[in-house]
Structures are given as structure tokens and as C-alpha cells.
Design a protein that fits this description.
alpha/beta; Methyltransf_25; methyltransferase; Rossmann fold; 257 residues; seven-stranded mixed beta sheet; disordered C terminus; 2 domains; two-stranded antiparallel sheet; 8 helices; methyltransferase activity
Length: 257
């Protein structure tokens, strides 16, 4: 799974025993040599689907941009500035090195509390591979922040995979990983939040609508379909609607939808 340029077992162990922010700071220089980086095939599929359905956009925002895998896609899709947001200073440093473009800027921030200066500034927001770092109770704050960052009619797009059936060996691998992470977080501090089964489409759709989005999905046909005919991957297209959005506050989570 890892190349000779990627992190070793000891480095991964140190990361796993750190906080999310510190862990990614440590992993950043070698992150692009791990299987955790979003594959080019996925980026190409999302870009092609967005271009076909929406055409081009004004400004673009990559939420939890990491080392900048999605920035090149946004540069091609967007006519105006492109911004990457991430909590890890180390990941942002790698992203800046990879994209020395005056039209691209990077902001260090928690995606659950995006800076007010980003409000109503973007026509497209994307995110890849980061949602496992947010507990279900944190999704409303995350989605409310993205909603606020978009201009009216703006789109929040991200891929989501079909549920893995329990009969598939991967289901057991993923379930085992999540169980191990729960045990780790119960006995070790600081926590490292990373789960694979906490982002179901039904719950995500409900939280997006509560945040003020209208939601549709498009099949990413590049990845084929399951025997049932359902797509293996979908692109969620959440559009900021014109209706007023009420913001509530939950203790400890900040503004949420």
C-alpha cells in the first residue's frame, strides 16, 4: 500500500497516537506517497461530472484541502480565486509548495468554524476524503460553515461511496478499523477522530437540507455500478438555496444548521 517514499510503520504509529492536527503535521511531507491521498481517478471523475453538469464557476473553495490534491481541479473549473482550507499547518505548507499560483491562497482554519472573511465568497466548494474526521454531531456545524461561505446558488460537491455489504471482506476490515479507533480514543488522549462508517448518505442529506441546501446526486459512472444497478460512487451536489437559513447554537459545537 505504501511506496518506498512513504511513511514507515513507526511514523504511522506516532501519527495514530497524536491529535488529528499534530498527526497530519507529522505525516504531511510524505502524505502524497500514501494511499490516503485522493486518487487522480476520483479527482478526474468529479471534475468531468461538474464540468458537464455545471460548466465553469467563479471562485472555488477546497474544504480540508490537505496537501492540495483538489486544488488543480478547482483551478481548471474556476475563473476566479481558489482557496484551500485546512487545520494542519504542515499539510498547508505542502499545498503551498505544490501550487505556487497567485490565484490560489490557503487559510489555516477548523472547517467547523470557517473564518467570517470567507462568507459569501465562493461559487463552488469541494471536499475529498476528510469527512471521517467529523463525528455525526459535528456535521451541522461543518455544513453551516460551507453554506455561509457560498454565494447564493453556489454548489458544495463531494463524492460518496455506496454502502459496503456485510458479505464483502472490506466491510469487516472497515468495521474492524472503526472499532479499533473507538477503543484507542477511549483509552488514549488526545483523540484521533477517523472513522469510515459515520457518513451515510441518508444522514448527510438530512443535515445538508437542515443547513439550507437543496440536495441532488449524480452517478459517477467512471466507477461502474453494483449488481443491483446502483452506482458504486455518487457525487453529492448541495446547492445553497435562496430561502432564509436559521442558525442555532449547540453547546460546545458553535453555530450549526
Amino acid at each position: 500500500m505504501f511506496t518506498s517514499h512513504g511513511p514507515g510503520v513507526r511514523e504511522l504509529a506516532v501519527q495514530a497516537l497524536s491529535s488529528v492536527e499534530r498527526g497530519y503535521d507529522l505525516l504531511a511531507p510524505k502524505f502524497d506517497h500514501t494511499p490516503f491521498r485522493t486518487p487522480e481517478r476520483m479527482l478526474d471523475a468529479v471534475e468531468e461530472t461538474l464540468a458537464q453538469r455545471e460548466g465553469s464557476f467563479g471562485a472555488g473553495l477546497d474544504v480540508c484541502c490537505g496537501t492540495g490534491a483538489g486544488i488543480g481541479m478547482l483551478r481548471r473549473l474556476c475563473r476566479e480565486r481558489v482557496t484551500g482550507v485546512d487545520l494542519s499547518a504542515g499539510m498547508l505548507a505542502e499545498a503551498r509548495r505544490a501550487h505556487p499560483d497567485p490565484r490560489v491562497d490557503f487559510v489555516r482554519a477548523d472547517a467547523r468554524a470557517l473564518p467570517p472573511e470567507l462568507a459569501a465568497s465562493y461559487d463552488l466548494a469541494v471536499s475529498f476524503g476528510a469527512f471521517g474526521h467529523f463525528l455525526p454531531a459535528e456535521r451541522p456545524a461543518l455544513f453551516a460553515g460551507v453554506h455561509a461561505a457560498l454565494r447564493e446558488g453556489g454548489v458544495f460537491a463531494f463524492p460518496i461511496g455506496a454502502p459496503i455489504p456485510p458479505s464483502h471482506p472490506l466491510w469487516w476490515a472497515v468495521a474492524g478499523f472503526d472499532a479499533a479507533m473507538r477503543v484507542r480514543n477511549a483509552v488514549w488522549r488526545p483523540p484521533f477522530v477517523m472513522y469510515y462508517r459515520t457518513f451515510p448518505l441518508s444522514g448527510v442529506r438530512a443535515d445538508l437540507r437542515a443547513a439550507g441546501f437543496t440536495v441532488e446526486t449524480a452517478a459517477l459512472e467512471h466507477f461502474g455500478r453494483r449488481p443491483s444497478g446502483a452506482p458504486r460512487w455518487r457525487l453529492v451536489l448541495a446547492r445553497r438555496s435562496a430561502r432564509p437559513h436559521r442558525v442555532h447554537v449547540r453547546e460546545g459545537l458553535g453555530p450549526v444548521g
